[in-house]
Every structure is written in structure tokens, then in C-alpha cells.
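Structure in, sequence out. Go:
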């Protein structure tokens, strides 16, 4: 589950909750903690790829508008 956090306080609380979850997982077993760490890393990579794709899409849209406006002008 990915949360969109806006304020610094919310980011700090989210970070603390992650740390608490990892400590709880290590209390259960080392295997559970390792699984949670790997899953968290996978989600971060997936999120960064999604943001990268959205950035490329936005640039393409802006370039399209620039080119169509240029064609309309000339």
C-alpha cells in the first residue's frame, strides 16, 4: 500500500511506522523481517518506475502541444 504524504510531519510519522513494523517483524522472525524489507524495496522501485513513466508522459504531452501550436502558427 502506497501512501501519498504531503507534510513533513506525516512523512516523519510514516517513517516511524515503517521502523516499528520492521522491529515487530524482527521480533517474529528474521525471515519475516527479510521478506518485509525485500517487499518494501520492490514497492519503492515500482513507485519510482511509475513516476518516471508519468514524467515521460507529461513531457511528451507538452512537446506535442508545442509542436501543434508551431504548426498552427506557420
Amino acid at each position: 500500500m502506497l501512501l501519498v504524504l504531503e507534510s513533513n510531519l506525516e512523512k516523519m510519522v510514516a517513517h516511524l511506522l515503517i521502523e516499528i513494523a520492521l522491529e515487530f517483524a524482527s521480533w517474529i522472525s528474521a525471515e519475516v523481517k527479510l521478506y518485509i524489507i525485500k517487499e518494501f524495496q520492490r514497492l519503492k522501485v515500482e513507485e519510482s518506475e511509475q513516476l518516471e513513466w508519468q514524467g515521460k508522459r507529461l513531457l511528451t504531452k507538452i512537446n506535442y502541444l508545442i509542436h501543434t501550436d508551431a504548426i498552427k502558427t506557420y
